[in-house]
Amino acid sequence: MRLSDVPGLTQLVLAFALTVSFLPTAGAQESQEQAIERRVNELLGRMTLEEKVGQLNLVSHGPPLRWEDISEGKAGAVLNFNSAEDVARAQALVRESHLKIPLLFGLDVLHGFRTQFPLPLGEAAAFSPRVSRLASEWAAREASYVGVNWTFAPMADLSRDSRWGRIVEGFGEDPTLGAALTAARVEGFRKGGLAAAAKHFAGYGAPQGGRDYDTTYIPRAEMYDTYLPPFRAAVEAGTASFMAAFNALNGEPSTANPWLLTDVLRTQWGFDGFVTSDWVGIGELVNHGIAADGAEAARKAILAGVDMDMMGQLYINHLPDEVRAGRVPESVIDESVRRVLRTKFRLGLFDRPDVDSSHLDSEFPSPESRQAAREVARETFVLLQNRDDVLPIPSKVRSIAVVGPLADAPQDQMGPHAARGHKEDSVTILEGIRRRAQSAGIAVRHAPGCDLFCRNTDALPGALEAARQSDFVIAVFGEPQELSGEAASRANMELNGKQIEVLEELAKTGKPVALVIMGGRPQVLGPVADRIPSILMAWYPGTEAGPAVADVLFGDVSPSGKLPLTWPRATGQLPLYYNRLPTGRPTLANNRFTLHYIDESIAPLYPFGWGLSYTHFAYSDARIASRQLDEGQVLEVSLDVKNTGARDGQEVVQLYTRDPVASRSRPLRELKAFEKIALKSGETKRVTLRVPVESLGFHLDDGTYLVEAGAIQVFVGGSSLADQVGEAEILKTFRIPPMERRASASTGVAQ
Predict the structure, then answer these.
(1) Same structural domain for residues 305 and 388?
(2) Where do the Fibronectin type III-like domain residues begin and end (predicted)?
(3) 393/540 same-domain check
């Protein structure tokens, strides 16, 4: 089945694209925006206070939603509607309401709707805005087909601590990578038919101890430099909305934080869409200890800048009384409603026909969506190590033992937050290997070796026997889905259960072993990294996990993923990240009184940006176009990259900089640009990476961006261990005020 063959789908997607790719020219933009503002103000003038507050109420399918709330104008948006029949019923009730204001239908569509793509952290390993845009567009196409028009994504939370379970929903630890991919996801969702809600604003990814929902302490300058750039990129890419975070930031809960929601988001960045709370987030202000009751919580949230109350019912229950008592000006309510209505007009919801109630998500996965999911997945796999070139599977191999409970785990391979994903749609890793092996006349044996959580190893003897009888062993272990995602923080990051024991026993068989790790974050491998020669990180690969993994294991495609975060040796190293500040006592191997641990190496197991290929790449002839740079100019670096191996492959060329002497201590390295290129065996390409001078500075606490005169060191290579290729000099110091737009950090990223 082709998407164009689905009744009404092409028209629906095209209609959406026409209404939200608003702004073909500056003149058209102005007239269109003026028309929208006029319609918003006219509608607002006809609304009662209760109807206004109704637009700020976001409720979920099922209790406490009453269907009559929709016809009575008591809901402005709903969530967890995922069938066209229910959406159509709700849309019919809207037409019975006084003002007939259409609903936003929201859903967590993070990495697919019915067809599941790799989880966002895995997708980030592709280091490709094109891939991120493609995956998001497909997710949106399927969701919008059944009437969903708003997704609570992308998650733009940067995290440096893989103990935090929700790290799987983001892009890793780097703001430049995060800004590029956040923007790409917003654009992909919009192209496919979904408005985006960038979340969680802000600082949610840095909780104390890696504990989900715990408080965060981040200096404001660090917020501007590290944690806010992906959110600003979401604004620039056209996100329709933001979601406030659960956490308290520096003692001030994000849901009642005017610095975040008003000063930064609206005043400095000019965002004029709306902000929603997270699930019951406004009510949680009582638990945070800054509100005595629901009425005070509602008052503090609306005054701080939260426009919509998700599942708290505090706005609809308390705001009318707060306005009448004079504690909340009605003008504040009007502005929040204006933001919501503005978004609905921009999305074309007032003029869009109701969804066809006969549309079913069972139309998917289609052959096209499966192919897209397969292509995206194999871009994300990271070959962590490959001693003795164990992979790809040699052509002489005639039998393979597939060991591990996650080899045949159709539910787990989809990962958390799988929207309408069905395990029956999944092609498991075991099945993918069997299909590919059959075409080559290779026998496949399967033995799980232990249960899903590897607590019981009664099946280990059978797995060892299968290994001994085979020429090659593929071990598939890692994190079952339940151990990753929201509310899945871990204090111990070692491979759970008895996985290490099983893998060590497999290594003792003497057979070549390739380990495929499934999971939502790096895990501490301990002795496994020494005992197993080849390790491939597959993340949660989605619906087409099997064919994609088989493509890479058998060498039909060379792995090209790069780590979007630093891989620790031990849990005690966390948080761990490459772009740390220097210390006055840098590590010296034979000096106890320098930066190090007494019981573990200070270095990560695998660095940020790391990832091997089945071929090899050589970098040469690096040249900096101009070694003296002034305001408004660009740092331009060109170099040759050659595929020196016998196989075709892809490489992610990465450019890092360092400001070695500044008024504030600056990171040892910062990723500033990257480009993913494909090279045939023996081929050479000239690659040029560009970084605006306006991206070579840092923020002050008030949001001012400071670029200082002086030397900038430049490094280019295939990971954060890249070699220095030269130095440039910024000629003069200049400042950019917080409210002035500057070149986005993603400017240096090839699209």
Answers:
(1) no
(2) 651-720
(3) yes
CA dihedral sign, ordered 430, 431, 433, 437: positive
Is there a single domain that holds both residue 425 and residue 542? yes
Strands (E), 82-181: 104-107, 150-151
Query: Of 545, 573, 601, which one is at a domain's C-terminal end?
Result: 573
Taking the C-alpha atoms of residue 319 and residue 49, their distance in angstroms, rounded to an integer, is: 9
CA 1 – CA 438 distance, rounded (Å): 26
Question: Is 742 or 236 the better-scoring residue by pLDDT?
Answer: 236
Integer Cα distance of 189 and 110 in angstroms: 10
Q: Is 593 exposed, middle or buried (0-12, 13-18, 19+ CB in 10 A)?
A: exposed
Residue 395 backbone dihedrals phi, psi, to 5 degrees: -65, -20
Mind telling me the catalytic residues?
A: 278
- pLDDT, tens only, 35-64: 999 999 999 999 999 999 999 999 999 988
Q: Which of 119, 136, 102, 118 is nearest to 238 (CA)?
A: 136
- Beta-carbon contacts of residue 371 (< 8 Å; ≥ 6 apart): none
Number of compact structural domains in the chain: 3
Rounded CA separation 364/495 (Å): 34
Q: Which two tokens stand for residue 342?
A: 């503005």
For residues 643-669, give the mean pLDDT: 98
DSSP E strands in 202-307: the ranges are 241-244, 248-249, 252-253, 274-276
Which pairs count as long-range contacts for 4-12, CB under 8 Å and 24+ apart, including other chains? 6/145, 6/359, 6/363, 7/356, 7/359, 8/356, 8/359, 9/141, 9/145, 9/359, 12/144, 12/145, 12/193, 12/355
**CATH number for the domain that contains residue 699:** 2.60.40.10
Residue type for position 43: L
Same domain, 341 and 416: no
Whether 108 is in a domain gets the answer: yes
Residues 624 and 569 in one domain: no
Alpha-carbon gap, residue 500 to 372, rounded angstroms: 34
Mark whether 343 and 390 lie in a shared domain: no
| Averaged pLDDT, 620-641 | 98
Q: And the tokens for 200? A: 């969680």
Query: In this structure, are 644 and 567 located in the same domain?
Result: no
Residues 6 or more apart whose Cβ sits within 8 Å of residue 24 = none
Place of tokens 């103000």: 41
Joined tokens for residue 579: 């772009």
Is 683 exposed, middle or buried, given 0-12, 13-18 or 19+ CB atoms closer than 10 A?
Answer: middle
Beta strand pairing status for 705-707 and 698-699? Answer: antiparallel
Report helix angle 26-45 to 330-346, nearest 10: 130
CB neighbour list of residue 157: distance below 8 Å, 6 or more residues apart: 166, 169, 170, 199, 200, 202, 203, 204, 205, 227, 230, 245
Domain assignment present for residue 610? The answer is no
- Residue 398's alpha-carbon distances to 80, 443, 469, in angstroms, are 49, 6, 11
Domain harbouring 302, CATH code: 3.20.20.300
| Neighbouring residues of 14: CB distance < 8 A, sequence distance ≥ 6 | none
Alpha-carbon distance of 586 to 252, in angstroms, equals: 35
Q: How far apart are CA 595 and CA 587, in angstroms?
A: 5
Q: Residue 741: pLDDT above 80?
A: no
Residue 72: predicted pLDDT: 96
Cα(535)–Cα(515) distance, integer angstroms: 5
Query: What's 456's domain CATH number?
Result: 3.40.50.1700
Cα separation, 19 vs 349, in Å, equals: 9
Tokens 């995956």 correspond to 135
pLDDT (0 to 100) of residue 29: 55
* Residue 62 located in a structural domain: yes
Q: Which of 471, 488, 491 is nearest to 480 (CA)?
A: 488
Residue 276 and residue 340 in one domain: yes
User: Got the DSSP string for 665-705?
Assistant: ---S-EEEEEEEEEE-TT-EEEEEEEEEGGGSSEE-TTS-E
Q: Is residue 391 one of the residues assigned to a domain? A: yes
Which domain does 69 fall in, by range? 50-347
pLDDT bin (cut points 50, 70, 90) of residue 247 is: very high
